[in-house]
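Intended use. Records like the one below are meant for learning the mapping from a protein sequence to its folded structure. Do not use them to infer anything beyond what is encoded.
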Amino acid sequence: MIELAKEPSGLWIVTIDRPDKANSLTEAMLTELAEIAEAAGEARALILTGAGKVFSAGADLDEARAGLATSDVWERLSGAIAALPGLTIAALNGTLAGGANGMALACDLRIAVPGAKFFYPVMRLGFLPQPSDPRRMAALIGPARTKLILMGGQKITAEDALSFGLIDRIVDPDALIDMARDLAADTLAADPAIASGIKELCR
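Structure written out for the chain above:
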């Protein structure tokens, strides 16, 4: 349910492929994603996307009730993505919900299709978000808008997400991966030490 394509250029494309369940994430899927991210230090750039019309609905509900909602695997995944030296891009093919926000927030860039929605109803479900998620979200959109999403329970449109700074571009669905490739092109062509050096200076 996780697909990985490694290209000769050094581009890795990771696809969450469980569209019949809105790409909801099981512990096995999250572990596989974390293992890929931990091995992706050799990648020059990484694109994270989903199959179908939803990027991810967050945790699989049955597994969430059984403890996945509070598992450390979410932080393991987002931490591994955030630590990568190459450019990381979340190409959001649809709605981003719940704990799946963490992996997108950990990426360097986020692009999304026009119909995407963004929400994180963790408080309503009776859980705290993973510790790094509010910090990363607040760094992008500020504390008040972060509380709007996490405490106000608001579902944000792609247009609002763009105006807030939560995403960087709105892209036609047919052009989503092409745009992600275009954003990665200069990094793939650069000296890896220079690219990683610029990323470190931006931290």
